[in-house]
Records
---
Amino acid sequence: MKARRMKRTLAKSPEAELSVEKTAHSKKKNKFRIFSKMKVMSLRSGMDIPFLFLVLTILVVGVIMMFSASYPYAFYHNHDSFFFIKRQLIFAILGVVSMIMVSNIDYTSLHKLTVPLLGTSFVLLILVLFMPAMNGVHRWIQLGTASFQASEITKFAIILSFSHFISLNLHRMHTFRYGILPYLLILAPTIVLLALEPHISCSVIVILLAAGMLFIGGVKLKWFGMVIGAIASALIYLVLFTDKLTYANNRIAGWLDPFGSSSGVDTWQTRQGLYAIGSGGILGLGLGNSRQKYLYIPEPQNDFIFSVVCEELGFVGAVLILLLFALLVWRGMLIAIRAKDKFGMLLGIGLTAQVGLQVILNIAVVTNTIPNTGISLPFFSYGGTSLMMLLAQMGVILSISRSSRMEKS
Amino acid sequence: MAKGITIRMQRRSMIVLVILVFLGFPMLVCRLIALQMFQGEYLQKMASQQQLRDTKINPRRGTIFDRNMNPLAQSATVWTVVLEPSYIDSEEKRELICSGMNEILGVEKEKLIKLSKKKSCYTIIKKKVESDVKDKIVDFKTKNGITSGLRLIEDYKRYYPLKNFASTVIGFTGADSQGLAGVEASYEKVLRGEPGRILTARNALGTEMPFEYEQRLDPTPGCSLKLCIDEAIQRFMEKAVEEGIKTHKVQNRAAAIAMDVNTGEILGMAVKGDFDANEPFKIADPAIEEKIAALPEEEKAKAKNQALSQQWRNKAVSDTYYPGSVFKMVTASMGLELNVVNESSNFNCNGSIKPFEGAKPIRCHKHSGHGSQTFVKALCNSCNPAFITLGQRIGAENFFKFYKDFGFHSKTGIDLPGESGDIFFSADGSMAPTDLCVASMGQNFSITPIQMITAAAAIANGGNLVQPHVVKEVLDENGNTVKKINPAPKRRVISKETARRVTAMLHENATNGAARNAYIPGYRVAGKTGTSQKIGLSAPGQMDYISSFCGFAPADDPKIVMLVFFDTPKGDHYYGAAVAAPAFVTAMQDILPYMGIEKVYSEEELEKINTVVPELIGKSVGEAKNTAASLSLRVVVVGNGDKVISQIPDPSSHIPKDGKIILHTDSSSSSSIKVPKLVGLTPAEVNKIASQLGLNINFSGIKLEEQGVASTAQSIPEGTEVPMGTVVTVNFIHHDSTD
């Protein structure tokens, strides 16, 4: 296996260099000059063009759809149809700039950021609990006119710290002391703090990301079995012997019967989202023609934006967007697997999996496949700071790709 | 493999990748397929339901015309005033609109404020607002710059320009312009038209989306109707029925139907004890309203409903009654058709008859008996024993066969709502012997007036049962005929010959028989009177009566048949001959000339007929005298001129032979006369008084030399000052008629 891969890589390299020469000498292929220039920087230092292309495509589609979805809401609530798009556009541009900047930084220098970032994450998670509640939850930290979710930092901190520690202790991952304990010490307080906000959906993402990274890092499968068993028995206990989960129970009732009128269950958002998706049919009502965005779907520019996408672009449009996301995940994973070191690999996989998980969970919520919980759709949902951070993280992946051993155009 | 990326790491990464890309995403695609393809239609429907607002625009309802295109029911544009609470976004605006509407519409302000706070996009504050008020609202809106929150929507209001006129036949409409009675109800689908719609997309707040979704579908106006009813004929009938009700203190309303005998077209249908179709929910009879007002509170609503359904009820098609002796024309037809009797068959009447062994004797209305009589005489006497005998000759089976043929056993199918059917002795037509006896004289089974007149029309038109109908044509909005309603006769009931013979007998009856009160000189009336008993409503155990007359004219070529029907007269008389026949004459003596039916006088009639006053103005006195003498009229000359400058009575009025014409030859006026009381006298007495005073009398309802008649009405009231020679019409009826 090892030998075969080596051979393939070796076999590819001259071929790639050949094509670079060809392009450089060909007047016909002027339009590829930018790509060519990047390539000229050599295979090892060039960034991955397909990934960049996918990010930018999804970003453009996302911003357009955000504009369409937010238009009526902004009209009625902010008396300015362009209220959201103006902010989103600014952050998108800043985000792309920071992505390019980050992509030029050597990601290995992020090792040094691990502890400060982890510290910041905890500070913010504690700080946010003292922030005024919005809709009954403490998630937002206000910074002047802008605000951001503390958990956005947390997710990155978890990915970074896990990548850092796992890459350092890879050969000891099978032990409890090095394979489980440090991560438990990071994860447990994080989850507790998130639960206090409360922010269940983020906890789920954090747990899934952590589990995935530990899995790749080589933690023994029996630990997973034990944790899954513990969680399952805890859940069974809570459901059977306490009423601590009534809140969740109601959500599950609403999930199972979104059109029912059971008391105490607010399924308005889910129901309106489903109406929108169903109304789209195969080809959709056309861009800008969603009816459900007219105040039926609450805040259509946020978590439920995909239902507006389905209504306007139909099944075909929705599947094309899903395909773009799938390709992004595929390409991101490929970059990570071919990274020059374990740290880069783990970081790349963590960041890519975060995007993939959020997309899958968000759309699963919107399509009522799982109970409703607040997860935003990357690149689509409104939120300036989170979009900028997301793009910066994509910059990290691009940085990894610069030293990744693969064809990059 | 640089920097220790192990194969296990790669393998496990691939597992994560596969879970995400090959499990997560396909799962989402499956969900989308389920939602967008399989449940799409359902979800879309649910979405549309909440997104679309459907506002109905009422169509213009068709007009109802009489047969000469005089409008009887019309729709005019009115307005519905609507509040749009979701557009009232400030207290200031609410206050402005509510106080403005309070001022203009008179709706309570608190109520308006409450409505304006309702969570809806559309609440009606007043319906059927007229154009002048609408203009005020439009002014109010422009003055205050109100562009939203208050809206006017076009609607229509039904007007009945002639008010009570034919209201039970035309009917009326409800709050949503839906026909509730009469032709308005039976032709609802034709008149209504198709409502239009404004389909507006709305957002979750209920306000319209500011963008492109609004679709308007224009309403299709309803078709108009041209009735068979002739406004003039209807008017004559209503007048006659109203007079009859007043004169004879009729307790339970009255009706008259006039029909074209050959086509079944209803030329007039007067039901009195009616209502103003513009205000159908108001109790029209002030006496009843007072009575209800006096009732305890909890009984009022019920009593009011009862009174309303009573005044809306079309007696001519919804009431059933014993036809009584009027039915004898049908029994006679059966007898002649079956050849079990002829005009000269002899019947003996000694005041009662024992129809078969062991039966209770049935009395004739003339207790002393009619003696020996021909069949013609028996009909003219309306002799009960004679018709019982005839009934027995016909037999129950034949009786029921003809009963069905004449259309009594099924509804006529007239195009009016609420038609009743008959009530016969048994469903299969079997009758006990006594039943047959009383049935022969029209008792103990119930039919509707419209069934009776349809049967009479069959006798009049030579034996065909026609389809009675009220609507002649359906017209489109531009007045073009869409459909002509010309139903073919249903079937032949009796032979032409039988019909002719019965008609001749009925003509005799209305000339010299019990129905001679229906005699109209020159118009050859044929008819039959009827007085039927019914269980009294006014007091328990007391019998009440329905007085009716059914007749047609002219007997030699019948054109129009009319049934007059008074329910429970409580005046001096209750016999059909005394109550219904005069009303028939009152109406027919106007209707027949109006229809252009020519007078034909028999020799005998010519002898006694009134003369038409000639035009004498401008002639010399001598000439005038000669002309008058040639017509056996007398002349009184006033003044000293030699030419006639004016005359009383006016040319072409009718005065009896021997009447006086006063001729003025200069401007000196002759003395005026006070009209004396001319009611309750014999013709001879009236004649005497009149000639003493210099008045001319027009005798109505009798032949001059007749005995047993008394005057009942005079055209010019007692005490009026009139010039000498004025014509006073005096009505007479026979008092010895008993049926």
---
Amino acid sequence: MTQQIILYPLFLQIAIGVILLFAWYRIGFQKIFSIFGSILSVGLAGWLFYYIWTSGTQTIQAGNWEAPFGITFVADTLSATLVLLTAISGLAVSVFSAGSVLRDRLRFGYFPIFHFLLLGLNGAFLTGDIFNLYVWFEIIIISSFVLITIGGEKAQLEGAVKYFTLNILASMIFLTAIAVLYGLTGSLNMADLAGKIAEIENRGLVEITGILFLIGFGIKAGVFPLYFWLPASYHTPPFAVSAIFGGLLTKVGVYALLRVFTLIFVGDPFLDKILMVIAILTLVSGGIGALVQNNIRKVFSYLIICHIGYMIAGLGMFTEVAIAGAVFYLIHDIIVKTNLFMLSGVVYRLKGTNSMRDLGGIYAKWPRISLLLFIPLFSLVGIPPLSGFWPKINLIKAGFSGGSYITVGAIIFASFITLVIIAKLWAEVFWKDGKELPFRKNFGYFSKMKTYKRLQFLAPVALLSIISLYIGFGAEHIQELSARIADELMNNQGYIDTVLNLKK
Amino acid sequence: MRTTIILKTASNYLLPVLLLFSIFILLRGHYLPGGGFVGGLIASIAFILHSFANGLKKTKDILLMHPGFLIPFGLSISFLSGLAPVALFDLPFMTGLWSHDPVAILGNIGSALFFDIGVYFVVVGVTLTIIFTISESA
């Protein structure tokens, strides 16, 4: 039964996590093993992706209990793609962690927890059961609590408190929503729910349940007005941690929204309207928020929020073209946001600060590194043919054909404001004449590092930049992929039939 | 910490009794209330009581190793019990495997028992690590 492949990424992450727990005190071994395991997981995820691409949506019933009674794991093209992207980001961050995270932090089980976080992400993408999705979310947030507090600096703990109060709240609302949903239908399997929700007469109750899910996932995804925890916490932990958080954690929320609102709460005009309004406000407020920040990581945090708006807008417009745009943006965003936070780590090690006012002169001193960092920055803006450009075509096209001109306006405004911010950042950090900063004695400056250590900083950035370039220049392939995903999401009967085994 | 001689003497006898009871709870868990989680908690209570009466150092000497080591140990037992149907019979993850003939006292042995044993060790490991860390820093 080759369907077992679906769960192999999960098995691998558990195995890596457990083996790393056994080697609690051997930091050197943990570094090597984590990188090795991550390479293996990219291979496995690639295999899974190829398998799903060639043979369509596959399911496996954990414990061999038939759906809808047991827990189903489903790999459709969206899940397989996200598992692959998680593996790639995971590899990059694993290498980056080995170079950048201080030994004092690694001593407290950084690497095992990191792999449990990846396990939670993979599980969330692959599960077909809404309660099981909640459990994976719990694994994700528990691991992320450890990662965000590890080291215990004052600023870090302050950020962590905000982070986990709101995330616990989100989990509670999510759980309540599941309870209501279960009370309405008596089922937890998402494919089964799709049919049962459609039959319910009391649409008001269904809409309220949908709103509860929207709030729960919205806090996690960081949409307006629920995003305030995000810029308050993402600039405090080590750079590697904020890279994986910025790249993947908010995207799990987006994934959950995509899944729930294309499968369970489908085509409800009220919910779609709310999604559109939220998307527009997220685009505008995130962009304006980023404009006034000085700390690079805070700028990127606000840009995360701003760009979540694109995906929510795609979901709100709810046409095949719009969903394809949202999915394309999701693919581009995971890679580029992970890369941007690693970039801020590189900048920090070059000059010893992250404040735009104090930075400067990097281009004059390190022209080659600057060119490397140019790629993720301007991929984010989406100067054609770099990767951020293509999904917006889909979104704007869908906006015009749907007649939602305000959304188109907001999308263009957000793109423009991103351009302004990145241009300002480029000018301030790279072009401006550098100030003489006070020399910090015990600081691990980039110029003092050995070559292999430098490589651990630059190789992951280079890897993700190459992938960003591929997404930009090979946009045709990604477009084909997102069109297929959008087709699967919009015509969800295939998914339902596969899970409930109705296909004869 | 001052402890009475009664508690000190009693805890020496309570430790094996409570451990035995925790294993009983663990084994009956498949059909009746109980199981790995509760069993693990009872086992850790046994050690905590011992440490209250005799001091942390003596309890650590009994344990032979750091309780944190039990966490990956238990996790791997649970994980392997789930993996067994995949590796041996090509059935989905966590499918229950059961022996044909019942074993004396235990009844039918299945992969679920090993999952529970894993949970038992993880709970003991986590609880003792937390309590020991707190009482060391207090």
---
Amino acid sequence: MSNGQSERREMTGAEMVVQALKDNGVKHVFGYPGGAVLPIYDEIFQQDEVEHILVRHEQGAGHAAEGYARSTGRAGVMLVTSGPGATNAVTPLQDALMDSIPLVCLTGQVPTSLIGSDAFQECDTVGITRPCTKHNWLVKDVNELAATIHEAFHVATTGRPGPVVVDIPKDVQFAKGFYVPPQIAPRTSYQPKVQGDLEKVKAAVELMASAKKPIIYSGGGVINSGPEASHLLRELVDLTGFPITSTLMGLGAYPASGKNWLGMLGMHGTYEANMAMHDCDVMVCIGARFDDRITGRLNAFAPNSKKIHIDIDPSSINKNVHTDVPIIGDVGRVLEDLVRLWRASAKADKKALYPWWEQIAKWRARDSLAYKMNNDVIMPQYAIQRLYALTKDMDTYITTEVGQHQMWAAQHYHFDKPNRWMTSGGLGTMGYGLPAALGVQIAHPNALVVDIAGDASVQMTMQEMSAAVQYDAPIKIFILNNQYMGMVRQWQQLLHGNRLSHSYTEAMPDFVKLAEAYGGHGIRCEKPDELDDAIKEMISVRKPVLFDCRVATLANCFPMIPSGKAHNEMLLPDEATDEAVANAIDAKGRELV
Amino acid sequence: MAQHLQPTGSAYFIAKETEKPETHTLSVLVDNEPGVLARVIGLFSGRGYNIESLTVSETEHEKHLSRITIVTRGTPHVMEQIKNQLERIVPVHRVVDLSVRSHELGQERPLERELALVKVAGTGEARVEALRLADAFRASVIDANTEHFIFEITGKGSKLDQFIAIMKPLGLVEICRTGVAAMNRGPQGM
């Protein structure tokens, strides 16, 4: 019934919403119906181009759309009703804002005549979501609806990507007006700068060529920029011979199997990555934002380095750390220029970097991710290592929740491609991983999608198992079950005299029975020597799986930069005795956390 | 020793501020659409920036452009952040730090004017004195009866402060101030 080129056709607001989704290339919408969006749901019912995925809670819709977006590079779309539908969407909106995920959220609103009257299921959606979106709109005139939705997609997906909300009152959904197709006529006030300043790129090349102890520190911006940016990053590393580390959000942009890879940096990064950051003389930050989990103590952050910072968002430059050569632009475009100019002018004197690489090799030899293997109990690190070994050659996507398991996954699961790793980095949203896995699986129906989960996080959005069963999405929820909120406990041990206030879950559901209750498949594994077979079973089952992997209950996540310390003051696993852990953070620091 | 006394132990390291705060006047050109002022104000409160004065009105009706003038206080580093964060807001066209711009133009500071309405009630000597002082400040009487005056006064904020302070013992009843309007001297636009 549709064609994208429909010129100024008269239709209802609800029809426009569905038409606009089609015209913006949307194939899937994650949502939950309610009074204020019923006209849109009625239109969705009468077509089959746009498939609607019914979640069990609006937060799940948001994280599923985020997972969908992150794994495809396209915008994720969610549709929710007014009032509680909108307020439940706030967590994924903020999550997407902090991790720069393109997310278009359509919300129903009470009829325009009732706005402000405290009507049933009314809330000030644009007011509530203003600080947690890149931009938002309340559409009061049906004739502006189509253009507004097109603009919403444009804003969400261009520049630094982010979440947007379009709030649509119910009477606007019923009203008739004229539809306009998407046009490239962006508003004059919104013009993201994508091309970097060539003089600055030249200055960067010169600085890089003079470096004796360089390091590349890349982030999620490389992945957001698209596969070409990752390709160029690899080329740059090959050309320069520089070592490279990455933030949590940037994993996969440079392959973990690459020889210049130092592993992740930051609070739970590797010793070699953090020491190299601390001692470097030239730092090339590409699409990352000097987050507090990365820098450690700011006044001791890479103290003797000149810094080059490539970012599409001018407000990221000089926000936390002073930059010597700021380059504002899209990572892909800037890398294109950088690689070209490097080829043209700089000689790759890789020999000059030998002493630096020798030093790095010494740091590497500390083997900072080592842990004590146990033959009776599954070590959580071992579980991830086995999961990696058994899934790395498959078409695998990994999501996570938030906590110790997330850091172990980042340390021990290795990514060779971008868009394969979905995690909540900035906001740190427990409950992200399960619905995100659902979104990824919807986008990639034949792929293996694994949520590496913790027993506490996974219970926050567990109900989406029901959605996974409904849509035959065979997501694998690999729960590292230690019965604790492990990261909370680890911090209580570090900061609060080992008083484990409410970080132990005394009543844990039987995850196997729970999986079966949802119509999925449950697996429990308690012994290291049974782990491989259990993981193989998980992979082979064509159903959503809850995998209850019982791991050592008191394992902690190391290495670690104790909070407020510098990169060269890491706590390594072999040094992390109870006493060292207890004394890592002094009394004064405890007040500040 | 000094190293030891530094605050450590927080994931959120709180660096000692070494830069001195300065007062700056910003001009922000925005699309005049619903919620745009809330976006600007929300940014300031959400990120912990100060607002000392804020003035807004549509200045170009046919283009629906409004000009917001904000007087704010912060270190040069914070000022840079404020400007960058404001420019991120979708309906914001331009942000000019008038204070920085005036230095670039070799001027001390931008032109700043504010308008106040000042109501003073009284009789006898105080009333005469109020009128005499108003004349000295070039305030004009825009409403009066035998018991009160309403003065309109325009000028720099400091002049208004002074006038209001003088009126206090003479029967000051109420004050309304517009906030600062500002632009740079010379032929160039913002």
